[in-house]
Amino acid sequence: MKTPSAPLGTTIAVIGAGRLGGVLTRALRGAGFAVTGPLHREEEVPASDIVILCVPDAEIAAAAAVARPRAGLLGHVSGATGLDDADFSIHPLQTFTGGEAPDVFHGIGAAIAGCTEDAERTAAQLAEALGAHPFPVDDAHRAGYHAAASLASNLLLVVLDAAEQAAVAAGIRSDEIRELLAPLVDRTVENWATQGASRALTGPIARGDEQTVRRQRDAISQQTPALLPLFDQLADGARALARAHH
Ligand SMILES: NC(=O)c1ccc[n+]([C@@H]2O[C@H](COP(=O)([O-])OP(=O)(O)OC[C@H]3O[C@@H](n4cnc5c(N)ncnc54)[C@H](OP(=O)(O)O)[C@@H]3O)[C@@H](O)[C@H]2O)c1
């Protein structure tokens, strides 16, 4: 994908050398910006047109206080945090563990906000330079928006880990079951994305086969009892989806 080139000579400093800070620095550099970073806690922040904070949400206020005098515009990358301490926000709607290639931003969404039109425009330009699609989310809705992102990624992992535990209890190795389940997970997500959850639902609950669900529940109860409350809650959710489809 061709991305727009960076405004000539724009200098950026990225503060925070964690999971997102490193890959964002590489990607912004790749997009043509003059980027310093990712800067660690004690490193001096050079005077820059834009300073982007890639620190945990609870550290944004402290890091902003240090960076503010060095920044033309100050931004953060948090999905849930408002603009009390920054001029703009750009939240890439993706999960980063740190080793990703710079093109990881291509084609993803990026929630943006700005204290002024200029600041919001800067956030949008940064998103576009990374190859992402900017979309606005205002302060009042950020926590709800971020809860949606966490449900789709962080909390989904709890379900996948439960599947792995149940399979291990059934005698299949962890690494083997992750490889075996991945195509099933991929197709499920693809069906959800194109058809919505109630149409994508298959399996015993969609078929009204409660006898099979009881046998699954008995197995969980005997082999991985700690998973039972999660299983019951998710099964109830699936019954509601099945009803919604009829
Ligand atoms: N990871 C993701 O998937 C993801 C996705 C979208 C948005 N984000 C956003 O990115 C931000 C950072 O998340 P992350 O996952 O990259 O966190 P992380 O891996 O925990 O990294 C945070 C980094 O910030 C550093 N730091 C903490 N306080 C600092 C300060 N006052 N000054 C300078 N550096 C400081 C930490 O250094 P120490 O280790 O020395 O404390 C650490 O290197 C958050 O706002 C998060 O919402 C993350």
What does this structure look like?
The protein is an alpha/beta fold and 246 residues long. The chain has helices at residues 19-30, 60-67, 117-130, 142-152, 156-169, 174-195, 197-200, 210-223, 228-245; strands spanning 11-15, 34-39, 48-53, 71-76, 88-92, 109-114, 133-136. It is built from 9 helices and 7 strands, in the order βαββαβββαβαααααα. The chain has a 7-stranded mixed β-sheet, sandwiched between helices. The protein starts with 10 loop residues before the first strand and ends with a helix. 29% of the residues are buried. Residues 15-21, 41, 54-57, 59, 62-63, 77-79, 91-92, 95-96 line the site of NADP nicotinamide-adenine-dinucleotide phosphate (NAP).
Q: What would a concise description of this structure say?
A:
This protein has 246 residues and is of the alpha/beta class. The protein folds into two domains: 11-140, 3-Layer(aba) Sandwich (Rossmann fold); 156-245.
**Category by helix and strand content:** alpha/beta
Number of strands: 7
How large is the radius of gyration? 22 Å
Q: How helical, in percent, are the residues? A: 40-55%
Q: What are the salient characteristics of this protein?
A:
single chain, 246 residues, alpha/beta, Rossmann fold, 2 domains, seven-stranded mixed beta sheet, 9 helices, 7 strands, 15% strand, elongated, disordered N terminus, binds NADP nicotinamide-adenine-dinucleotide phosphate
